[in-house]
Amino acid sequence: MKVIGITGGVGAGKSEILTYLKERCNCRVIMADRLAETLEEPGQKCYRQLVALLGGEILQADGRIDRQKMAARIFADSKLLTAVNEIIHPAVKEYILKTIETEKAADALEYLFIEAALLIEDGYDRIVDELWYIHADVDVRRQRLKDARGYSDEKIDSILKGQLSEEAFYRHCPVVIENSGTLESVYQQINEKLGEGSCQK
After folding, report:
1. I need a surface site. Which of 20, 44, 84, 141 has the fewest CB within 10 A?
2. Residue 165 burial by Cβ neighbours in a 10 Å radius (0-12, 13-18, 19+)
3. What is the CATH number of the domain that holds 9?
4. In this structure, is residue 174 part of a structural domain?
5. Residues 8-19: pLDDT tens digits?
6. Which domain holds residue 121?
7. Is the Cβ–Cβ distance between 122 and 89 less than 8 Å?
8. What is the DSSP letter of 65?
9. Could you count the other beta carbons within 10 Å of the beta carbon of residue 44?
């Protein structure tokens, strides 16, 4: 089983690529953001630590964490944001490492894909077999974020400012998938990279 990390800036089109991989390959896909949300549920790894840090006012009536309230708290306070990340990121990485170990032992999959915006910053280049950078031109990404999410230019500027530079992605990722054009072009690049017969269920 080969472990491949998928990363890239917001709006690069990682979700479409992961959907294609899930449909065509004998693989499992782990999306770090969704995994983090699972680990924040009551009874899960991060729940009690987050409530202890942020207080009961971030909870909904059913006891679940209200992510909008949590986001409002932590993005207004850089120290709180750092503290929350220090709870969530290690828990996500621990889960992923255990999953890699379990799936390798089961020997049933051809690939395990891990998608996260912070793969490079969190040192996943030492965990995965290969890092893929999903690249799209900034103008293309901006338009996608406006069309799909309704983001304003100001919000997009704020998000882009907090992300790695293209140079950093290129430096750390030996594989680059160009996603500024059509999906057909992307699928062709993936098929060429993995081998035409590799992702054919």
Report:
1. 44
2. exposed
3. 3.40.50.300
4. yes
5. 999 999 999 999
6. 1-26+110-193
7. yes
8. B
9. 13
Q: Smallest Cα–Cα separation from 19: which of 159, 143, 134?
A: 134
Mean confidence (pLDDT) of the chain: 92
Task: Give yes or no: residues 54 and 86 share one domain.
Answer: yes
User: What is the spatial distance between Cα 74 and Cα 63, in angstroms, rounded to a whole number?
Assistant: 19
Residues 118, 163: Cα–Cα separation, whole Å: 9
Starting at the earlier edge strand, list the strands of the sheet with 111-115: 27-31, 111-115, 2-7, 130-135, 175-178
Contact 95, 13 (CB under 8 A): no
Residue in the structure block whose two tokens are 């051809």: 110
Judgement on whether residues 80 and 137 belong to the same structural domain of the protein: no
Q: Residue 46: CB partners within 8 Å, gap ≥ 6?
A: 36, 39, 40, 87, 88, 91
SS3 category, 175: strand
Is pTM beyond 0.70 here?
Answer: yes
Tell me the helices (H) and strands (E) count for the chain, helix number first: 9, 5
Contact 40, 51 (CB under 8 A): no
State pLDDT tens for residues 76-111.
Answer: 888 999 999 999 999 999 999 999 999 999 999 999
Q: What distance in Å separates the CA atoms of residue 7 and residue 176, rounded to the nearest whole number?
A: 10
